[in-house]
Amino acid sequence: MLDQTALQRVARSVVARPSRGQAVVGVLLAVLGFAAAVQVSEVDSDDAYSGTRREDLVQLLQSLSVAQDRAAGRLADLEETRDALQLSTQQRQAALLESQERLDSLRLLSGQVAAVGPGVRITIDDPDGTVGAATLLNAVEELRDSGAEAIEVNDAARVVAQTWFGDGPDPADASLVVDSRTVSAPYVVEVIGDPATLAEATAFPGGLTDEAEALGGTVSVVTSDELRVESLAPARATSFAEPVT
Amino acid sequence: MIAVLGLLVGVLLGLFLEPSVPLALQPYLPIAVVAALDATFGALRALLDGIFDDRVFVISFVSNVLVAALIVYLGDQLGVGSQLSTGVVVVLGIRIFSNVAAIRRKLLHA
After folding, report:
1. What would the pLDDT profile of A47-75 be if each residue is shown by its tens digit?
2. B81 lies in some domain
3. Which residues pair with A152 in a beta bridge?
4. Which one of A47, A148, A153, A191 is most buried, counting C-beta atoms within 10 A?
5. Chain B residues with CB inside 8 Å of A30's CB?
6. Interchain contact B6–A (C-beta under 8 A)
7. CATH architecture under which domain A114-229 falls
8. Separation between Cα atoms, residue A194 and residue A149, nearest integer Å
9. Among residues 13-52 of chain A, which lie with CB inside 8 Å of chain B?
10. Taking the domains of chain A in order of start, what are their residue ranges?
11. C-alpha–C-alpha distance, residues A72 and A65, integer Å
12. Does some domain include residue B18?
């Protein structure tokens, strides 16, 4: 249902004899085609901002710099938070390390763990059963004064702050009671601490050696680079005292 | 015939030479192309109506392009370049649509 007259007009113009007017129209259309093709390839080839106006670019730049400022602000905030967290983590680790060290030394002092280290081994022989609890207690006090860190008697009884000494049930028998444990002569007292100081603590005039020999016993002191104190003190639960925080 | 040939030659030249648009012309070229398209569709409509005239086409073509470029230039000077070129494109687009609709009615009676 095409319009015949219109089509005929078009056909006539297409086959019409070339004239000056047609040439001008052709040139103009060539210019149009050229410009359109150039513009299309320009849009295709260049990046997105080449055809953008100056004020649009300025606006883009401004919004970008605002966004950058905001991002930098966030970055600073986050870095601050990170530093604070790292600091608190380091402090927590230091506190943890310190309390671990305190725990270790307290466990050693309270006899809850075995100990190893240099020290002296004191052997007190008592053939007549005359060396008593008082002598041993004096000796322990002297050793503590000299910096003893772990003491045990006969590999069986660990000596700690609450340890008590008593004479054995039979006075004639060469035995003592240390924290409810009965130990028999010869008493072997192993002490961890500075060996020279500890040896000195037993040998001074009126000290353990003199006292025991006056009672009829013999004392020999051997220093050692590595002693093991492996017996443990009984754990005591506190009923009244509570730590002050 | 010459018109169609000219259009083809222009497109091919533009595609193969790929010249870069001078910076000063960059804002005006797309608007000018749209204005020229408007003039061309108007000319096609006139041809179908049997009232086509070379002189009228040439004048309308050139003046369309110049006026469009002038409006964009004025907009740039006034600081509303992007808005004004959008407006020009909208107006020319409406004209192109109405011309194409007239051509369609003429050819297909629909």
Report:
1. 667 667 778 889 999 999 999 999 999 99
2. yes
3. A158, A190
4. A191
5. 6-7, 9-10, 13
6. yes
7. 2-Layer Sandwich (3.30)
8. 9
9. 13-16, 18-42, 45, 50-51
10. 55-109, 114-229
11. 10
12. no
Q: Which residues of B touch A16 (CB under 8 A)?
A: 1
- Residues of chain A with Cβ-Cβ distance to B35 below 8 Å are none
In which band, very low, low, confident or very high, does the pLDDT at A133 lie, cut at 50, 70 and 90?
A: confident
Task: Count the residues in chain A.
Answer: 245
Reported as a single tens digit per residue, the pLDDT across A203-245 is 888 888 888 888 888 888 888 888 888 888 887 788 888 888 7
Please give the ipTM for the structure prediction.
Answer: 0.81
Q: What is the mean pLDDT of residues B52-57?
A: 85
This prediction's pTM: 0.47
Query: Is A216 within 8 Å of chain B by CB?
Result: no
- CB-side neighbour CA atoms (13 Å) of A33: 21
- B29 touches B73 (CB < 8 A): no
| Alpha-helix residue ranges (DSSP H) falling in chain A | 4-15, 20-45, 54-109, 133-145, 195-203, 208-215
